[in-house]
C-alpha cells in the first residue's frame, strides 16, 4: 500500500441538537480532540437547534472561515425533528457514497440492525468544503473519526488538490 502523506486542514464542527450546548456537547468535543490530536486545526465549534433555517444560517456563517472540512453531528436519524440530512444533503455537489455505506456497516457490527436508520453521509458541498454528517451519538462519532475520517482526511485533501 502506498504511504499516505499527511496534510493538515482547517475544520469546523457543527453540533445539531435541541438539548445540548457547548458545555454538554460531548460528541463535538470528541470530534475536536480527534482532529487536533491528528494535527488538524479546528477553527470553529458551534451548536445549533435541529431547525433547517438555523442550520443553513450557521453554515453560511461558517463558510466565511473558508474551512476545508465541516463535520456535523446530530439530526441524521429518522425522527420527525431530524432535519440534518434534508438540510445539508441538498448542498452536496459531489457525494462520497462509500462513507455512509461503510459507516453503517461498521455501526452494524456495534449496534446491529439499528444501524440502518442512520442517514450519515459525506461529500463536497457547492461552496467547496468537505462535509461529514454524523449521528449525534458519541460512540457513533468515535467510530467515524477513528475508522474513517482521521485515516482518510489527508487522502481526501490531496485528491481535491489535484
From TrEMBL:
Domain MoaB/Mog: 12-156
Coiled coil: none
Gene Ontology terms: cellular component: cytosol
Keywords, alphabetical: Molybdenum cofactor biosynthesis
InterPro entries: MoaB (IPR012245), MoaB/Mog-like_dom_sf (IPR036425), MoaB/Mog_dom (IPR001453), MoCF_biosynth_CS (IPR008284)
Annotated metabolic or biological route of this protein: Cofactor biosynthesis; molybdopterin biosynthesis
GO BP term, pick one: Mo-molybdopterin cofactor biosynthetic process
SMART domains: MoCF_biosynth
SUPFAM superfamilies noted in UniProt: Molybdenum cofactor biosynthesis proteins
Function: May be involved in the biosynthesis of molybdopterin.
Family indicated by similarity: Belongs to the MoaB/Mog family.
Name by which UniProt lists this protein: Molybdenum cofactor biosynthesis protein B
Organism from which the protein derives: Listeria seeligeri FSL N1-067
